[in-house]
Q: What sequence folds into this?
């Protein structure tokens, strides 16, 4: 698969270089309708290649090898990779046996390990956090939880650009926020004392809201087929659901009984002129860029919905040249006015009054994951009469902007009318 991805990337690089060459050499009167049409055709081919590459990249993430996961754990634990591979295989055997047959399918040793995780969950989060009985919830192996969180990256936009921290416990954190955009040093004479300089700071409360995957049903036939990697199958299904709801909240969450999303937390940087209810202009992009403090622009990027990207790709400057430029190599990404962008399908689409474009340093948005993920298995008559087994995951997350200056991230809002 990696060879096919490389071939596609080489094709894309050639097409991107072709487009860049046209953009760099055709100016003014040379930019004819035929030239514009040829560039649009190249862009369409780049879009097709991008879709193929994204699908294959996503599959590679899902098929991450056991040895690579063991290597990552080994770096943290100090134990050898071989030892961690052995531990992971043991955890995988427990999960697969539990998923296929419940607690009754486990050996005495495996039951002891499951109960130990359940006891740990009760100790950390209280008796109500974990179920009991044959379906009983238990604290998932740490690697299962870590892999679930890694796979969540492929289903949303915020995780790929925000700062993400992981904690074992779920107690609230008073996270410090600092505004140093207006602070500067001083010139001090010989033997003179330095002046005091109080930094303007505050705190943001980062909690841990409880999320459910809702129950995912799996056909009994898949569970009975030993060739099926049940752990990976269930993990991806759970990750997809939790990723979608958390990404929505990290993007547009209200901050009341849920995370405060980046759109909600951002300040207005530019509002479209009257009539721009579903459009944006070159001038809007320039104004939005300069609404963000220069201290944050080196790491800044755009974020918007795919439908907004379609609008942006059609924008031209005064000579008819596109504002969007394709990247030639992996180190030279697609850009708009020199800045990269992230697609996020939870961003508002362009509509009257919609905050449709974000710009700024997304590392100033903090996502907090609690590593304890609780799993449940349901095999009662409601599912068995349909030939299914149900799985449910509980996990805890929060997110908020940690910029005290209010200058790190701004939004473009379409005109109200």
A:
């Amino acid at each position: 698969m990696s060879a096919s991805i490389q071939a596609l990337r080489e094709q894309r690089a050639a097409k991107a270089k072709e487009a860049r060459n046209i953009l760099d050499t055709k100016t003014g009167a040379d930019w004819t309708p035929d030239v514009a049409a040829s560039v649009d055709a190249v862009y369409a081919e780049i879009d097709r290649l991008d879709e193929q590459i994204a699908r294959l990249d996503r599959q590679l993430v899902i098929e991450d090898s056991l040895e690579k996961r063991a290597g990552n754990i080994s770096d943290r634990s100090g134990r050898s990779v071989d030892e961690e591979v052995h531990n992971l295989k043991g955890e995988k055997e427990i999960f697969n046996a539990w998923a296929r047959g419940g607690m009754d399918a486990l050996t005495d040793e495996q039951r002891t390990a499951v109960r130990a995780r359940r006891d740990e969950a009760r100790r950390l989060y209280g008796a109500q956090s974990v179920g009991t009985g044959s379906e009983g919830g238990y604290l998932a192996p740490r690697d299962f939880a870590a892999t679930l969180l890694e796979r969540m990256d492929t289903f949303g936009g915020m995780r790929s650009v925000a700062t993400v921290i992981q904690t074992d416990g779920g107690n609230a954190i008073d996270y410090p926020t600092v505004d140093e955009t207006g602070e500067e040093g001083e010139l001090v004479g010989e033997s003179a004392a330095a002046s005091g300089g109080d930094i303007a700071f505050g705190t943001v409360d980062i909690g841990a809201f409880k999320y459910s995957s809702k129950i995912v049903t799996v056909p009994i036939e898949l569970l009975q087929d030993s060739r099926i990697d049940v752990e990976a199958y269930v993990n991806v299904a759970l990750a997809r659901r939790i990723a979608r709801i958390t990404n929505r909240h990290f993007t547009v969450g209200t901050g009341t009984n849920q995370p405060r999303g980046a759109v909600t937390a951002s300040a207005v940087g530019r509002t479209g002129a009257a009539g721009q209810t579903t459009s944006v202009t070159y001038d809007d992009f320039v104004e939005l860029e300069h609404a963000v403090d220069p201290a944050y622009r080196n790491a800044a990027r755009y974020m918007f919905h795919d439908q907004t990207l379609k609008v942006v790709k059609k924008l031209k400057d005064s000579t008819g040249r596109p504002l969007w430029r394709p990247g030639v190599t992996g180190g030279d990404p697609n850009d708009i006015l020199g800045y990269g962008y992230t697609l996020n399908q939870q961003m508002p689409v362009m509509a009257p009054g919609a905050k449709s474009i974000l710009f700024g340093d997304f590392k100033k948005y903090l996502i907090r994951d609690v590593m304890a993920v609780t799993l449940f298995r349901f095999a009662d008559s409601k599912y068995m009469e349909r030939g299914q087994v149900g799985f449910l995951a509980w996990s805890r997350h929060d997110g908020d902007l940690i910029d005290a200056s209010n200058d790190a991230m701004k939004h473009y809002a379409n005109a109200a009318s």
